[in-house]
Amino acid sequence: MLKKQSLKTIKSISTYRNWHKKNQGVIGFVPTMGSLHDGHLSLIKKSKKQCDLTVVSIFVNPAQFSPSEDLDSYPRDLESDRLLLKNLNVDVLFLPNKGLLYPKNYSTYVEEKLLSRGLEGEARPTFFKGVATIVVKLFNIIKPNFAYFGEKDIQQLKVIKKTVRDLNIDTQIVKGGTIREKNGLAMSSRNQYLSKKNLKELGIIYESLNCAKTLILNGGRTGTLIKKVVKEKLKNIKGLEIDYIEINCSETLKKLEIVDRDVVVSLAVLINGVRLIDNLEIKI
Ligand code: AMP
Question: Which end of the chain is more exposed for a tag (fewer CB within 10 A), N or C?
């Protein structure tokens, strides 16, 4: 068994840069907003396998929340997060505060303008600007060779890949599959807001995506029909509101009315004030 090392927590950029100078090797980086669950841990394990050193950041990024969203109430559990990171032998926890990353008069933002347009970008107009900005800032500090992102947030993964390509950033983006609860509900820090009843019944979200998959693989190729099938399934949950159900080209995220190529079926729902997203890629 691997001996547990102590987890080095770094809160300043200069301390990180000193550590980086002293520690040679391939660096894997997993940016997170904390409240870690098995979805995050699967990305960290990937990095541990592929890289010499693994850095995880925890930062609840204000730039990606709109004023009406849950920045203040976003779940935070640093002690439990530290323990999980220590158990995985993570080398560094980078734990900046808001003032370090967004000092007074901060005024520089990164905006990807193609893949950010629909889906989450439409529902949350400033979200990807905030995400791209923080990711580029963190990459400039951490200088990772590899960075790990989850397919659970498929549009985010694609926006970051595109940003890295467009800005010639020397970091390879690695994707990790969506980790789910036993009933299929995608793990998310926001699941903590859900009641036991909701947690149990919301496996239906993944079921609805799988219904779309079955339909498509059996020749159902019209968007309206596919969305109807997903909607019918979701109707079984009392109090659930659908924000969107969309079918997009897997590669370009272009909206499709007819499934004539590999697609990703994505959805966002609201239940008792909690917004959840999920998606399933379907190769035809
Ligand atoms: P967050 O802390 O929500 O910003 O997520 C940090 C990273 O973990 C992002 O790359 C997410 O896509 C990824 N992630 C979140 N939930 C899951 C999940 N259920 N399975 C795989 N990756 C996930």
Answer: N
